[in-house]
Design goal:
The structure is a single chain. The protein contains two helices and eight strands. The N and C termini lie far apart (about 35 Å). Strand 6 and strand 7 form a beta hairpin. It is mainly β and about 170 residues long. It has one domain.
């Protein structure tokens, strides 16, 4: 097991898994502004059974294409709070963790990027007044044999209050 922590999120990963925790700057709005004036995204956590790339998309569209039949990707993406997005409201109304996951939760219709044979689950929720999307992708239904490990990673997640980015 290895522990990964940054930006108010920490998790324990099984041996052989990789992880990234980061925030992204909105590069499109940098023009004419000092870097400290540009809002950061919320925290983004990726964990996978395959190596991760620092410059992948927030929902891991590159790594998804590299998942083998028994591989898994977990994404926990925090949304920046502003006048249009409030923790605990609308899409983020559910409070508390939306896991453990069950085999019946996974569907090809939940995928951000459709890859033949893959299945995923997507849940929106608020914890510690921080709005998140949990997104989990299985390389195939065979990866369900890793469901205990996936839930173990999710159960190990610790989310601190107050780290959310204001847009």
């Amino acid at each position: 097991m290895s522990k990964h922590a940054a930006h108010g999120i920490s998790a324990e990963l099984p041996s052989g898994w990789s992880a990234l925790i980061y925030r992204r700057r909105d590069d499109d709005s940098v023009t004419g502004k000092a870097a400290e004036e540009v809002p950061e995204s919320g925290a983004i956590f990726h964990a996978a059974t395959v190596p991760l790339e620092q410059n992948d998309a927030d929902f891991g569209s590159s790594v998804v294409r590299r998942l083998g039949s028994i591989d898994t990707l977990i994404v926990l993406m925090e949304y920046a709070v502003d006048e249009n997005l409030r923790p605990g409201e609308g899409l983020f109304e559910e409070r508390g963790v939306p896991w453990p996951l069950d085999a019946r939760d996974f569907s090809s219709r939940s995928l951000q990027v459709t890859v033949e044979g893959q299945a995923g689950v997507q849940r929106f929720f608020t914890i510690e007044d921080r709005p998140f999307c949990l997104y989990v992708v299985l390389g195939s239904r065979r990866a369900l044999r890793q469901l205990d490990r996936i839930n173990s990673v999710l159960d190990s997640l610790e989310i601190e209050p107050g780290e959310q980015a204001a847009a």
